[in-house]
Amino acid sequence: MKSKLNRRNALKNIIAGTAAIGVSSGFSSLAMNNTDIQEQPWKLKGNINHSVCRWCFSTLDVETLCIEAKKLGLTGIDLVGPKDWPTLKKHGLISSMCNGAEINLVDGFNDKKFHDQLIKNYTEMIPLVAAAGYKNLICFSGNRRGKDDETGWNNCVEGLKKLMPLAEKHNVTLVMELLNSKVNHQDYQCDTTPWGVELCKRLGSENFKLLYDIYHMQIDEGNVISTIKSSHKYIAHYHTAGVPGRNEIDDTQELYYPAIMKAILETGFKGFVAQEFIPKNADKLASLKKAISICDI
């Protein structure tokens, strides 16, 4: 009996000693591993090319935005013109959607009176985009101002056809953005995917495509995933934002972005998905990181 008690006590001592070793070495090892993890650069899965729209983070200068974008694993920044391209290049980033040739959002290709200025602007900008090694250059339909669909399409085709040979020569894609006309851009003509797709068909060039803004199209037409699947060959670029409000794409809004990203990925899309939400949270970069993680499937 005494022998059994001695063995039991010895076993307890061994267990206690082992536990003590675990406390002294195991926990410190865990802490070290956690430190290592925190120091690791943030790694993305590599399935989606992520970018961010410059204007949404205008409180940061371009240099700072580039530094923070690199930390988050981004490879591009949207809506950056030639003046800031050297800064992007310095940080190994690209202008994933170039701008600077448009007049504004309301005076576009659907009105002949703007054609001379637009053709001049784009004729000058297309070679600059190509020389910088970039591909996408944004454009806009402009507001209806009483024009029916047919007039809008015809005018857009007339103006854009004059630019297509130059775009094709330089392998630059003119990308017309789809904007909602119910909330943010009232009277804008290219406000549904079918309108944009019809324009793509009439132009018949691989160097003219659409920027499918998920926020805008949820407002004007909904049916986001089905539309992406049926119209993906006409889409060169995507923008995100929460609906309603155009803020964070977290659970405060109505769209489920993981499913949308999965649908985009399943189409074989190789372009960029750019975050274009207006952060409400005080830590804007934390909001950006969360948005990227939601979309990184």
UniProtKB/TrEMBL annotation:
<dbReference type="GO" id="GO:0016853">
    <property type="term" value="F:isomerase activity"/>
</dbReference>
<dbReference type="InterPro" id="IPR050417">
    <property type="entry name" value="Sugar_Epim/Isomerase"/>
</dbReference>
<protein>
    <submittedName>
        <fullName>Hydroxypyruvate isomerase family protein</fullName>
    </submittedName>
</protein>
<dbReference type="Pfam" id="PF01261">
    <property type="entry name" value="AP_endonuc_2"/>
</dbReference>
<dbReference type="InterPro" id="IPR036237">
    <property type="entry name" value="Xyl_isomerase-like_sf"/>
</dbReference>
<dbReference type="InterPro" id="IPR013022">
    <property type="entry name" value="Xyl_isomerase-like_TIM-brl"/>
</dbReference>
<keyword id="KW-0413">Isomerase</keyword>
<feature type="domain" description="Xylose isomerase-like TIM barrel">
    <location>
        <begin position="88"/>
        <end position="278"/>
    </location>
</feature>
<dbReference type="InterPro" id="IPR006311">
    <property type="entry name" value="TAT_signal"/>
</dbReference>
